[in-house]
Design brief:
CATH superfamily: Fumarylacetoacetase-like, C-terminal domain
Number of helices: 4
Bound molecules: magnesium ion
Number of strands: 14
Radius of gyration: 16 Å
Distance between the termini: 21 Å
Shape: globular
């Protein structure tokens, strides 16, 4: 059960799949692109998701999400796997019209990305021993039709690299969550749409836009 009382923050990685960077006309970055969402961005478990009033172009971005299980700073990539214990799928909801405006002006993205309930997180899977973070299959359906599909091997920066990189700038704390970037196929959703995310074939979230 996730509530906004849980002390945590979200880190999100942008442009971590080459095909997705291309579809939005962005360069593939040499270093991870990081942005954050506050804990008020969390859609609490079993709460409805409402289409925000301030956008006319709401986009879904289905992503693998990891949960930090140990406080850390300056984590080496080879040690990074010791700092997360859970993985799931989530949606980094984006007001694309607002983001495009902000990007044009070179302004920060928070109004497009960090609003209340913009972070949807599915049911966590406990990471087993000998977990291969570089071969995870996932996909998302919209209204029962496949719209996004990815494998973590397609990430430009691996999960362990991301954990290490973020920790050079920010302390990672127990409960923090990292959205690891979205594969190609992002798109619009409207009121009435049903979004369902599958991790290795198992449904981990199901949400309807209200
Ligand atoms: Mg994203």
């Amino acid at each position: 059960m996730f509530t906004k009382d849980h002390p945590m923050k979200f880190f999100c990685i942008g442009r971590n799949y080459a095909e997705h960077a291309k579809e939005l006309g962005n360069e593939v970055p040499d270093e991870p692109v990081i942005f954050m969402k506050p804990k008020s961005a969390l859609l609490q478990t079993n709460m409805p998701f409402y289409y925000p009033e301030f956008t006319n172009e709401l986009h879904y971005e289905c992503e693998l999400v990891i949960r930090i299980s140990k406080n850390g700073k300056y984590i080496k990539e080879r040690d990074a796997h010791n700092y997360y214990d859970g993985i799931t799928l989530g949606i980094d909801f984006t007001a694309r019209d607002i983001q495009n405006e902000l990007k044009k002006k070179g302004l920060p993205w928070e109004k497009a990305k960090a609003w209340d309930n913009s972070a949807v997180v599915g049911k966590y899977k406990v990471i087993p021993p000998n977990f291969d973070a570089k071969n995870i299959n996932f996909f998302m359906n919209k209204n029962g039709m496949l719209v996004q599909q990815g494998n973590s091997s397609q990430m430009i920066h691996s999960i362990d690299k991301i954990v290490s990189y973020i920790s050079n700038y920010f302390s990672l704390n127990i409960g923090d969550m990292i959205f690891t970037g979205t594969p190609a196929g992002v798109g619009e959703c409207v009121v009435g749409d049903q979004l369902e995310g599958f991790y290795e074939g198992e449904s981990l979230f199901k949400l309807s836009v209200q």
